[in-house]
Amino acid sequence: VLVAYLLCVIVATVWLRLPTSFIRESVPDVGALTAAYLGLTARGNVAGSVGSSVVLGYLIDLISGTPPGLAAVVLGLTCVIARAAQQRILVRGTAMTMGFSAFVALISGVVSIVTRMVFGVPRPGVMIDLQHLALVTLATAITGSLVWKIFRRIDAAFARTHRERDAALEGL
Fold first, then answer.
1. Distances (CA, A) of 26 to 35, 80, 172
2. Among residues 88, 120, 125, 135, which is most buried (max CB within 10 A)?
């Protein structure tokens, strides 16, 4: 969670320095990728992964200026959805990772929009929301493989056995 939080801070500060406004508005959703990764790698009980996703969402709420609890709820639900989807598909290879990253960003964005609507949080018009969702989904799909590769390396570094290390490096 701490590594994901640091990645979110780094991405947020670096992305603001990019040259065009089109690129600056398409910040990859590292929080959603992390929540999905936690859901995908959960063994047995998913409660720890959901708890970690909620904590990360709370930390993202603190630095992003979103209403308190919005990212926490969205990332917790994203973790559960990714866990449910993982039981149906196999996420391996660059194309599947990019596709699943886009799916995660899309689901996270839709959950965020619905949550804001349900709780009456002010939001922009529908077209602006959809345009932003499309840009974030594209950026997240492009960066998803790199983010998950970083997480797999960290998992491999902390693996207890050689078998766990190989499994972490192989992929999800």
1. 19, 25, 26
2. 135
